[in-house]
Recover the amino acids of this structure.
């Protein structure tokens, strides 16, 4: 019986050490040390020959905390490091139309880790009376050590911080009298962070994006802060000038059916619409994913199209996230040409999906026209995305469709867990942003900033006069005063966002007057 207990203790300890190894991203050498450590510890634990002290089934107190920790580790293994706000947001919003790439070996390891903990615990509950005390103790430890526990507590009961609310500035609603109403094209390039230019083969992977940046204004130093690190957060942050503060599950409504999405503040399409712009959003993914449709419906977009609207056109040439980038760009070029003929200033937004982690989605056009060489699938997908965006910009320019027009290109968020995460993490990770077109001279702005600083930057590029360059909680990259990232630092800004309550209440619960 003692030897059985040692075997059970080995698997129990190994299960705990595996979770620590994955969470702290330790390497294979340390994994071997963990195996050796588990063997040594299991040999040192004193056991006796007690047998079947609990003949009846006995509830494990640690089972529920174990399930919660397994859920956390599962999300961590799929997405890498993540915001708790993203979990809350997607639990309430839903993920219709999306499907994350799940690596089978990670699922196997997670299941084995779960079973490696559960089965020995059940064994010990029947064969070692000490586990009447150890089991509830482990339950408490698992609960307290789970980051979810502290995030939930902090979200609902933590100390409030007014920094974000006090820094919010409502944007001006009107362009200056006599200002030229420039058309604007905004391209969200899925996951194409600028850090790809820094890694090995970066000059090949990111060449098209860097060529585009060299012809206009490029921002270097855009960091990712709390509640800006997923697709909808990227849309909202750059269009509304605030991080996407989740409301919390206690609200009880699924946002995809909710009529009030950021009703307390004015976002870019609201302002452009009030200034006579025609606004349109073309999305390579699904309409209902993460509540995108609810936001678009509530913020003055005249027309929106999504993957579902092109099903008959593309047939089976789709990825499980939606349209390939060559299809999307072809349709975008047609729409922009049509909008030019309408003789009304327009704002055209579009969102690609080609760079989506963890493998990316290179198009058949790229496979036919580009040399992949020794690039991985993910690297080639990033290059392919740049190829299509650059080709579209060149096509529009050749057709004369970029006159009196600004083109803004930026990624929605840093790329999530993928085969190159370790290499990317060894660099100062930055989002990508460039603006080119009418009146924009080539320049590089190097300063620390957050994605919500893009909102006032875009407004200024459009000709809007902003007091001190402020709009939302952002400050224009072209304004010399310090922004919130520079004032608070990365960690301080993350803390202010996490502990905010007041701005969250404003953006969700207030009702802004309609702009006329």
């Amino acid at each position: 019986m003692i030897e059985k207990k040692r075997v059970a203790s080995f698997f129990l300890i190994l299960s705990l050490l595996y979770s620590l190894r994955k969470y702290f991203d330790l390497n294979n050498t340390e994994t071997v040390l963990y195996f050796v450590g588990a063997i040594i510890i299991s040999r040192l634990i004193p056991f006796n020959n007690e047998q079947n002290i609990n003949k009846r089934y006995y509830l494990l107190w640690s089972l529920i905390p174990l399930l919660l920790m397994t859920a956390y580790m599962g999300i961590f293994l799929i997405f890498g490091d993540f915001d708790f706000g993203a979990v809350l947001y997607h639990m309430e919003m839903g993920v219709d139309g999306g499907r994350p790439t799940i690596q089978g070996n990670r699922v196997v390891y997670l299941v084995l880790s779960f079973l490696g903990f559960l089965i020995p615990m059940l064994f010990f509950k029947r064969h070692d009376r000490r586990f009447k005390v150890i089991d509830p103790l482990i339950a408490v430890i698992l609960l307290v050590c789970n980051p979810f526990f502290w995030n939930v507590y902090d979200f609902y009961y933590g100390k409030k911080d007014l920094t974000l609310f006090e820094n919010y500035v409502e944007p001006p609603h009107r362009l200056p009298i006599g200002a030229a109403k420039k058309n604007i094209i905004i391209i969200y390039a899925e996951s194409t962070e600028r850090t790809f230019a820094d890694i090995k083969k970066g000059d090949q992977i990111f060449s098209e994006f860097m060529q585009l940046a060299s012809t206009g204004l490029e921002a270097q130093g855009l960091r990712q802060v709390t509640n800006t690190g997923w697709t909808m957060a990227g849309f909202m942050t750059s269009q509304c000038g605030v991080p996407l503060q989740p409301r919390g599950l206690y609200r009880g409504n699924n946002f995809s059916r909710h009529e009030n999405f950021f009703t307390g503040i004015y976002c870019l399409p609201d302002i452009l619409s009030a200034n006579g712009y025609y606004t349109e959003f073309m999305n390579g993914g699904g309409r209902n994913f993460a509540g995108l449709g609810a936001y678009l419906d509530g913020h003055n977009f005249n027309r929106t199209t999504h993957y579902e609207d092109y099903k008959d056109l593309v047939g089976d040439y789709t990825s499980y996230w939606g349209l390939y980038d060559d299809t999307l760009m072809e349709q975008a070029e047609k729409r922009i040409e049509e909008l030019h003929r309408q003789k009304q200033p327009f704002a055209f937004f579009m969102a690609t999906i080609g760079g989506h982690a963890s493998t990316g989605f290179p198009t058949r056009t790229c496979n036919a026209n580009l040399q992949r060489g020794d690039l991985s699938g993910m690297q080639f997908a990033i290059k392919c995305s740049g190829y299509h965006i650059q080709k579209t910009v060149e096509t529009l320019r050749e057709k004369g469709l970029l006159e009196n027009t600004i083109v803004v290109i930026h990624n929605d968020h840093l790329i999530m867990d993928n085969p190159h995460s370790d290499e990317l993490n060894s660099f100062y990770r930055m989002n990508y942003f460039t603006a080119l077109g009418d009146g924009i001279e080539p320049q590089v702005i190097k300063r620390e900033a957050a994605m919500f600083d893009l909102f006032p930057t875009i407004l200024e590029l459009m000709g809007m006069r902003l007091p001190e360059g402020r709009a939302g909680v952002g400050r224009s990259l072209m304004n010399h005063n310090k922004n919130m990232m520079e004032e608070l630092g990365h960690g301080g800004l993350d803390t202010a966002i996490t502990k905010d309550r007041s701005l969250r209440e404003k953006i969700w619960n207030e009702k802004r007057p309609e702009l006329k």
About this structure: DSSP finds 21 helices and twelve strands in the chain. Residues 163-175+185-475+492-509 form a domain with the Alkaline Phosphatase, subunit A fold (CATH 3.40.720.10). The mean pLDDT is 85. Residues 104-127 form the longest helix (24 residues).
